[in-house]
Design a protein that fits this description.
With 314 residues, the chain is mainly α. The protein has two domains: 47 residues; 237 residues, Orthogonal Bundle (MetI-like fold), CATH 1.10.3720. Helices cover 74% and strands 1% of the residues. The chain has 14 helices and two strands. It has a two-stranded antiparallel ribbon. Helix 4 runs antiparallel to helix 7, helix 10 runs antiparallel to helix 13 and helix 12 packs antiparallel against helix 13.
Amino acid sequence: MEISVNDNKDNTKVSAKKKKNINNIGFLFILPFLIIFIIFSIYPILRTLYLSFTNFNGFTDPQFVGIDNYKRLLTDSIFWTAFGNTLKIWAVNIVAQLGLAFLLTIIFSDIKYKIKGLSIFRALFYLPNLIATTSVAFLFAQLLDWQYGTINQMLLDMGVISSKINWLGQPKTAVLAVSIIGAWMWFGNSFLMLMAGVQGISKDYYEAAYIDGAGRWKVFTCITLPLLKPIMLYVAITSLIGGLQIFDLPFLITDGIGSPSGALNTTVMYLFNTAFKYNNVGYAAAIAYGLFFIIAIFSALTFKTMYGSKKEAK
């Protein structure tokens, strides 16, 4: 039986058409995600960008004002003070958070110690991250209470202090308290990331180093740190983004406007109050994009610092 060339071409076209139809059906499965992503992510981003060029109070029609909001942002002393407060909180937070995470990573990754029960410690360290920030803020507000707080009572009984400390009523101690609380909440997440990176490093490197007589510090600086760079970059940038966007903890643990003396008035808290307390949504949108550009610059600098130039990489 002979098959003509035309019949082969027709069969090929039918097969290609069926394959194309099957591929098109696949797009239907991701359509719900795309619709939700566009509505709740892409649209708010574009809408906020538009509002940043308007004078909008949330009720009347937006009035286009060009780049006036951004000009105001550059000379807004309250914004830059709030950003400075955010940097102070983040700086103490990141040192305590990553310092503790690195210390625990060194201890649990040391093949000489061979500490057992890593999964239990992982759960314990990550537990604060699972507690709602509202609950954490309420808990520490009670513990740090000036008159009846448990921490003051314990320190007095131990003789560490001679008089009660108003932890949340003084700028320096309030910033320190919020930073340490944030570090306690998030160090478990950083520890898990770093520990996952360490476990991905071949144990042959460590065994060879110990056979050659390398000490723990030499092993950590020459093997662990260089091979952990990708994970460290991820942890550093995500901690940076989260730290510069801190809002819920200082908002809940104080009066919501940054007391004492505005020391806990972070950038996002200023944005929130500008939009919903003072009804200046247009300027709040400009603050949001101003913070976005600042975070982008800091992230680029972090990447540049950790990886250096292309010439150094070569």
